[in-house]
């Protein structure tokens, strides 16, 4: 944040970010400045997955930010993943500062092509040749451990990491490995699967295993390397069923209306009487919500955002979301023929 006798400004005023890439955005107001400043980009903040805001005093976690105020000699870092393409305005909202030049833009676009994409890694291997690795969460008296507690994977080969929290344990547990920023970001993930559902996302942040829970992570190693917000206290429950008849399929209800900035528990259910698994795919909607977690009887799944949710027969899962962007979003089951039979719908986000 720059000040002179006749002008204020951001340095640089305009930044370009790639969609679905993690960033640490550091904002700094130097000690030589004479005023506090805001870095306000309300429309942009609503379209990013915010991990946290971090300064020397605290870590702040929220569904999304409305504004960031930097005191003199203040600095903070925003850990985020942009999800929606566009050009977003930035300004300091203190009266007169924008007129002196304290404005700018944040542009979000598609990431430049790399040598190999995650989907190419996943599609390049023979999953019939996968190696299955079992991991158990062990409780013994006062000690807690993973068994085994170290793993070696070979880049470019398919693996299934089967994580189990046995019935005899007394507590739920997380499986959150570190290394090269995050293990989950160093692998190409095909999916996470439980007895209830399959989850697909660009990458996952953490998995929490309930007592008696088990899940499988399908992945290909690519890179070498060894809390909740108050909005959830007013979460609204919405149930969405999957219905089959001899001549049609459908979501029940097909169309749902949500309110922006309100926490929801969206429960998806594919009854035992159905004959097929189904997807609840709302790609554009998923990218515009704050996703706290996906929760079923086996595990809690955390990711920047979901790409699709597949419900197995007799499967059920609950998505904890906060819609942030107004609009009407299409929903469909992407299994061939199911949308034609009527398995479509909409999600409308209202003010």
The low-pLDDT segments are 224-233
The total of beta strands comes to 30
**What gap, in angstroms, lies between the N and C termini?**
33 Å
**What is the mean predicted local confidence, pLDDT?**
85
> How large is the share of residues in beta strands?
over 45%
- The helix/strand class is mainly beta
> Can you tell me the overall shape?
globular
The percent of residues in helical segments reads under 10%
Largest sheet: 8 strands, mixed
Q: Helix count?
A: 3
Specify Rg, calculated over alpha carbons. Answer: 22 Å
What is the topology, as strand order, of the major beta sheet?
A: 13-12-14-19-16-17-27-24
How would the blueprint of this fold be written?
Elements: E1 2-3, E2 8-9, E3 14-18, E4 23-29, E5 37-39, H1 42-45, E6 48-54, E7 59-60, E8 68-70, E9 74-82, E10 86-91, E11 103-109, H2 118-124, E12 131-140, E13 143-147, E14 159-164, E15 173-175, E16 187-193, E17 197-200, E18 206-209, E19 214-221, E20 236-244, E21 249-252, E22 255-259, E23 264-270, E24 278-280, H3 283-286, E25 289-295, E26 299-302, E27 308-311, E28 315-323, E29 327-332, E30 344-350
Parallel strand pairs: 3-11, 12-14, 20-23, 22-30
Antiparallel strand pairs: 1-2, 4-9, 5-8, 6-7, 6-9, 10-11, 12-13, 14-19, 15-18, 16-17, 16-19, 17-27, 18-26, 20-21, 23-28, 24-27, 25-26, 25-28, 29-30
């Amino acid at each position: 944040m720059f000040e002179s006798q006749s002008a204020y400004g951001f340095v640089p005023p305009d930044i370009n970010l790639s969609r679905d890439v993690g960033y640490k955005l550091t904002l700094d107001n130097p000690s030589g400045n004479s005023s506090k400043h805001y870095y306000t980009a309300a429309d942009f903040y609503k379209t990013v997955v915010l991990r946290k805001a971090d300064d020397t005093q605290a870590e702040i976690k929220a569904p999304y930010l409305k504004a960031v105020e930097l005191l003199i000699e203040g600095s903070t870092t925003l850990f985020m993943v942009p999800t929606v393409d566009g050009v977003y305005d930035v300004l300091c909202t203190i009266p007169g500062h924008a007129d002196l030049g304290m404005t700018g833009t944040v542009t979000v676009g598609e990431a430049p092509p790399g040598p190999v994409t995650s989907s190419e890694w996943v599609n390049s291997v023979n999953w019939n040749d996968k190696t299955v690795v079992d991991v158990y969460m062990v409780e013994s008296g006062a000690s807690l451990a993973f068994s085994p507690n170290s793993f070696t994977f070979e880049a470019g080969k398919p693996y299934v990491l089967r994580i189990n929290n046995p019935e005899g344990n007394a507590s739920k547990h997380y499986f959150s490995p570190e290394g090269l920023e995050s293990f989950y970001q160093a692998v190409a993930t095909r999916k996470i699967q439980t007895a209830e559902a399959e989850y697909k996302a660009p990458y996952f942040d953490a998995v929490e295993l309930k007592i008696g829970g088990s899940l499988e992570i399908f992945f290909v190693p690519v890179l070498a390397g060894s809390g909740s917000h108050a909005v959830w206290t007013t979460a609204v429950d919405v149930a969405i069923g999957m219905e089959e008849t001899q001549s049609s399929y459908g979501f029940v209800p097909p169309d749902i209306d949500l309110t922006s900035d309100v926490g929801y528990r969206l429960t998806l259910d594919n009854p035992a009487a159905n004959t097929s698994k189904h997807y609840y795919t709302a790609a554009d909607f998923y990218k515009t919500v704050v996703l706290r977690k996906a929760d079923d009887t086996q595990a809690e799944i955390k990711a920047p955002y979901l790409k699709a949710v597949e419900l197995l027969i007799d499967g059920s899962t609950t998505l904890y979301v906060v819609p942030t962007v107004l609009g009407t979003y299409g929903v469909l089951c992407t299994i061939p023929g199911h949308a034609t039979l009527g398995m479509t719908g909409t999600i409308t986000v209202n003010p």
